[in-house]
Amino acid sequence: MDLVRPRRAKLALGFGLMLINIAMSVVLPGAPRYLLDNIIAKGQHYLLTPLVLIVFGATIIQGVTSFSLTQLLSKEGQRLIAQLRRTVQEHVGRLPVAYYDSNKSGALVSRIMSDVEGVRNLIGTGLVDFVGGILKALVSLVILLRISALMTGLALFFIAVFSMTLQTAFKKIRPIFRERGKINAEVQGRLTESLAGVRVVKGYHAEDEEAQVFSGGVQRLLDNVLKSLTAISLMSLSATSLMGIVGGTVMYVGARQMMAHTLSPGEFFSFTMFLAMLVAPMFQVVGIGTQLTEALAGLDRTQEVLHEKPENEDPHRTQPVGTIRGDIAFEHVNFSYEPGKPVLYDVSFESQPGTVTALVGPSGSGKSTIISLIAAFHEPTEGVIRVDGTDLSTAQLYPYRTQLGVVLQDTFLFDGSIRENVGFARPRATEAEILEACRIARVDEFAEKFEKKYETVVGERGVKLSGGQRQRVSIARAILADPRILILDEATSSLDSESEAAIQEGLSYLMKGRTTFVIAHRLSTIRRADQILVVEAGRILERGTHETLYAAQGRYYDLYTRQHGIDANLFLAPGEGDSVPEDAARPRLAGAAAPTAASLLGGGTA
Fold it and tell me: Domain check: are 18 and 157 in the same one?
C-alpha cells in the first residue's frame, strides 16, 4: 500500500528490534538446562553467577526492545490511521454526486472513521505479536529438534492438525467481519439521520418508532457478534485441547526417555519451556489473528471506496476552463438517474450571459434535475450541455465549479461561526470583503446584535439561527463567491415578507451581470426574468416572458392564477393587447387583493 511504503525504514527498524527481542527471549528457557545439567549435576558452581547475569541482561534487553517496539510501531500505526482517514475523506469528497445519492452519509462516516481502525493491528503491536510469535516458534522448533526429534515430531503433528482447523475457521470468520462492518455502517447511518432530524422525529412523536428501528439494527449487530464469538470460542477450545494433548504426550515420552537415560532432566525442562514458546503463538493466533482478520475486512471495505473513480479523473474531462461568460445551452438533453427511468425528455434552451432564466412547475417536474446538470453534478444520458460553446461533459470540473454560486432552499451551514460560514465560499477573502458581503445580504442587521457578533457559532446546520437568518448567510456566501453562474433554488422560501423585502437589494446585486437560474422563488424577479421555462413531467411545455406566457393563458397562466387564488376573470384587461404588465391588472371586486411583486410561483422543489 502507498501509505506503508514511506514507512519502510521504521518498519525495518522495528523488525530489527523484533529479532533482538526474540534472540533474548530464548535465554531464559535455555538457562535451566545448564543450571540442572552443568552447575548442579556436574558441580560447575563457577558458572552460576555468569548464568544469572546473562539471564538478567537478556531480560532487560528484551524489556527495552519490547518497550521500543510498542512506542515505534504503535505510534506509527496511529499516524497511519490518521493519514488513511485523511486519504479516504479526501477521496470520498471527490466522488460524484451520484455516489452520495446511493450511499448514506452515516455509512460513509463509518468507512472513514471505523473501517481504517484495523490498520493499527497490521502495523502496530498486533503485527509485532503475530510475526514475533511466529519467529519465536521457528527458533523454538530448531532448538526442540536438537533436544528431541521424537517429541518434537509428535508435537508438530498435533500442531499441524490445529493449524488446518484455524485456516478453515478464519476463512469462515472473515465474511462475518465484513458483514459486521456493513451492518455497523447501516446502524450508524440511521442513527446519524435520526439525530440530525430530531425535530421531525419529535414533531411526529416518532421516538418509539426510531427506537425500534435502532433496536433492530443493534440486534442484527449483536447476532453477528455472537456468531463470530462462537467461532472464536471454538478456536480457543481447540487451542486449549491442543495444549493438553501436546503436554500429556511430551510428559509421557519425555519420562520414558529420561528413564532410558537418553534425555537429561535439564534437557527435558528446557524442552518444555521451548515447547511453550512454540505452542504459545497458536493461542496468539486465535486472538491476534482474529484482530488481523477483522482489520483486513475493514481494509477491504476501505479499498472499495478508494477504488471508486473520482469525478475529476474522468479521462474525457480534459478541456481547460478559463473565465467563463455564462452562455448556457441545452441541446436535446435526456437524463435518467436509473437506466430505463427517464426524468428529462428532449430539453433544449439557451441562457445568454447576464440573463435570468426562471424554472417553474409542480414538484417532481424536473426543475432541480436541470439545475443539477448545470452544476455538472450529473451528465446527460443523451444530448449536450454547452458552456460558452464547450461541451460541459468534457470541461475540467474544478475550474468550472469555482465560478458557480448556489443558494438553496435547504440552507446548509456548518457548525462554525457566521464569519466562517460566509468565508467558506472564498477562504482567502479579506475581512473587508466578508463584511461587505454580509452588509449586502443584510447579515449585519442581526449579527451585530449578538454578543460575539460575527464570531457567533451557528450550531449544527445553523440550528441557532432562524430560517431567514440562515438564508441571509447563504446569500452572503454566494455574494462573496462572486460567481459567473448563479443558481437560486427556492432562495427566499425561509423568509417572511419583511425579511424578503430587506434582501431584495442583496439578491439584485448578486444577480447583476451573472447568468442566473431561478427555481420557484418569491421575488418579483420571476416576472422580470428574461425567460421563464415551464417544466412538467420532464419536458419544457412553455417558454417566454411573464407577459407573453400570462397572455397565452396556458400552463403558466394556470399555475400563476391558481397560486394566487384569483380567477383570471377578476382581472381587467389592459387594453386590446394580450400582455399583462406587472401593474396593469387590477381586481374588479372590492377588497380583492392584487398580487404583489414579492409573490412566488411554482412553490416546492423538483
Answer: yes
